[in-house]
């Protein structure tokens, strides 16, 4: 079988095709070597109502120039940065969003006096300039927390506890929305959340929730007890209340008058010492 090679303008078709492929791939290879990458968004997970939120968007343009940075709340754009335009920044009206233009730029946008309506998903869209116009979009959630100031209220069944007794306590968080989480600690050892209930309350500013938790703990260590109740929202906004309890040591009268429980007398080291001391005085 005879192999036939066609010619095109003095070049074989095979050679012409290789040159064409190489020319087509050059921009792609250059774009792979120098392109927009590592786009990263940093938004507060949770922030108090009425405070300032700083939303950051970092990226690596390598050898490319920046074309634009756009910020969205949900699907609506509210801020844009364009270095080739004057002024560089543009704010799009969006209810309840108060952009501090003087503090906002190519890598961040600052929101003043945040309101509960600003709770939601935020997107940062970064685009490189010509000829590639590479674009990447990243997103994150920000929760705006409405909470009353103050510490959790911690209540214990007794002011003192002895070895072997059962400690009972309850703790209630300040009202908030979303509801707070409660964590218990005894001598700085985490016990968990206890039994949780959430109580709604309607305020002029909207609905809030109080979280109430209760625990029962077997006292197995003699000495003082450090009881701590910690209230937190998304592990970002938190407060705690700590109570120190002294050991409830047996009194002399209760030992000498055991109300018929003779078995308790012989098993108590304190009772043996007091009995010996009493005998010495009688002698």
What does this protein structure show overall?
With 283 residues, this protein is α+β, with helices and mostly antiparallel strands. The protein has four helices and 20 strands. Strands 4, 6, 7, 8, 10, 11 and 14 form a seven-stranded mixed β-sheet that branches. The protein has a four-stranded antiparallel β-sheet with strand order 12-13-18-17, with no helix packed on it. The longest helix is centred in the N-terminal third of the chain and has 21 residues, at 13-33. It is elongated, with a radius of gyration of 35 Å. Residues 1-33 and 252-283 have low confidence and may be disordered. Keywords: Disulfide bond, Membrane. It is found in: Membrane. This is Ig-like domain-containing protein. Its main location: membrane.
In short:
The protein has 283 residues and is an alpha+beta fold.
Could you give the distance between the termini?
A: 133 Å
Q: Which value, in Å, is the CA radius of gyration?
A: 35 Å
Helical run tally: 4
% residues in beta strands:
35-45%
The residue ranges in which pLDDT falls below 50 over 5 or more consecutive positions are 1-33, 252-283
N-to-C series of helices and strands: EEHEEEEEEEEEEEEEEEEEEHHH
Shape: elongated
Helix content: 10-25%
Describe the sheet with the most strands: 7 strands, mixed
Class by alpha and beta content: alpha+beta
Mean pLDDT: 80
Main location: membrane
Organism: Acyrthosiphon pisum
Keywords: Disulfide bond, Membrane
Subcellular location: Membrane
């Amino acid at each position: 079988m005879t192999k036939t090679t066609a010619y095109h303008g003095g070049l074989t078709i095979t050679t012409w095709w290789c040159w064409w492929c190489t020319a087509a791939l050059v921009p792609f290879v250059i774009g792979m070597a120098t392109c927009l990458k590592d786009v990263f968004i940093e938004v507060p997970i949770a922030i108090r109502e009425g405070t300032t939120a700083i939303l950051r968007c970092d990226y690596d343009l390598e050898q490319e120039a920046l074309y634009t940075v756009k910020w969205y709340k949900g699907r609506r754009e509210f801020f844009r940065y364009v270095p080739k335009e004057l002024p560089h920044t543009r704010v799009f009206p969006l209810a309840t969003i108060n952009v501090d233009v003087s503090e906002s730029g190519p890598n961040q946008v600052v929101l003043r006096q945040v309101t509960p309506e600003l709770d939601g998903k935020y997107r940062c869209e970064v685009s490189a300039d010509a000829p590639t116009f590479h674009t990447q979009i990243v997103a994150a959630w920000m929760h705006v927390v409405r909470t009353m100031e103050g510490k959790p209220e911690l209540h214990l069944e007794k002011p003192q506890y002895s070895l072997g007794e059962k400690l009972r306590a309850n703790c209630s968080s300040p009202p908030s929305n979303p509801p707070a989480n409660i964590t218990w600690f005894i001598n700085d050892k985490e016990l968990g959340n206890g039994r949780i209930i959430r109580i709604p309350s309607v305020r002029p500013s909207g609905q809030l929730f109080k979280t109430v938790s209760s625990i029962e703990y077997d006292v197995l260590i003699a000495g003082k007890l450090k009881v701590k109740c910690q209230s937190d929202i998304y592990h970002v906004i938190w407060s705690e209340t700590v109570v120190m309890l002294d050991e409830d040591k047996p009194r002399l009268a209760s030992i000498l008058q055991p109300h018929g429980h003779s078995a308790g007398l012989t098993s108590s080291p304190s009772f043996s010492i007091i009995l010996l001391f009493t005998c010495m005085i009688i002698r």
